[in-house]
Design a protein that fits this description.
Elements lengths: L2 H22 L3 H11 L8 E5 L5 H9 L4 E6 L2 H13 L6 E5 L12 E7 L8 H11 E12 L7 H19 L2 H17 L2 H7 L3 E8 L4 E7 L3
Parallel strand pairs: 1-2, 1-4, 2-3, 4-5
Antiparallel strand pairs: 5-7, 6-7
Helix pairs in contact: 1-4, 2-3, 6-7
The structure holds S-adenosylmethionine.
């Protein structure tokens, strides 16, 4: 799918996005984001970027765990960002979190600006994965972290159930509560992604050091971390 189609699709499903996320992951998505955020050790005043921020759950979790940091969320779907802004206003976190429209492949920030950059469930939607990671690397300071949370291939007894879940359950629930076509795309994009892309290898190829893959929940998702060399 091309970038403008991806943006349009997320705009269409934005209203029900959070509800379906929690439902389809049995509420585990909140735990996965918590784990992602807990891997960062910022100092007061540090700037943290959340790319493909969507409805802002990672940005909100960053603000929850790190009271004295400044967080910027960037996404190219305005309806997703509108929901993020509302949630942040309700939580009284507008001082710490700002959202900005922008493309992950051409981030609207100068080099070496942020202490860390996160991306949760965004990289598989980006047209060129390595280019997306390279952009995150560009805007992170030397010694800073890039952290990516994404679906991954379990390689254990759960794989056939995972496949069935993706092929049957996700499009069915998507059809009932939102737009079936969008959820058909989402499930096929997950399956294609987990069988073709290796984020840990991409991080290494792009020159990151201390690269780690941390599988969660029997490996259905993983966190990938890389440090930008000094
Ligand atoms: C599955 S949602 C994830 C949202 C959020 N990070 C979360 O954890 O729920 C993917 C988001 O990535 C955004 N996205 C996809 N490609 C993008 C790009 N090239 N630039 C900016 N945002 C992008 C979409 O608009 C969407 O909001």
């Amino acid at each position: 799918m091309q970038a403008d189609e991806v943006s349009r699709m997320f705009s269409i499903i934005s209203r029900r996005y959070d509800f379906l996320n929690h439902l389809m992951s049995f509420g585990l998505d909140a735990y996965w984001r918590k784990r992602l955020v807990s891997l960062i050790k910022p100092k007061p005043g540090d700037l943290i970027l959340d790319v493909a921020s969507g409805t802002g759950d990672v940005a909100i979790e960053l603000a929850r765990q790190f009271k004295n940091t400044k967080i910027t969320g960037v996404d190219f779907s305005n309806p997703m960002l509108q929901i993020a802004k509302k949630k942040v206003a309700i939580l009284g976190k507008s001082e710490n979190i700002k959202f900005q429209f922008g493309d992950a492949l051409n981030l609207p920030f100068k080099d070496n600006k942020f202490e860390a950059a996160t991306m949760a469930f965004g990289i598989r939607n980006v047209e060129n994965c390595q280019k997306g990671i390279k952009e995150m690397k560009r805007v992170v300071k030397k010694g800073g972290l890039v952290l990516i949370l994404e679906f991954s291939r379990p390689n254990n007894f759960i794989t056939p159930f995972y496949w069935l879940y993706l092929k049957l359950v996700i499009p069915t629930l998507g059809g009932i509560f939102s737009k079936k076509q969008a959820y058909l795309y989402l499930s096929s994009s997950i399956w294609q992604f987990i069988n073709t892309v290796n984020i840990a290898d991409d991080l290494k190829e792009l020159g990151f050091i201390h690269v780690k893959k941390i599988p969660l929940t029997l490996g259905v998702v993983s966190i990938y971390i890389g440090e930008k060399a000094l």
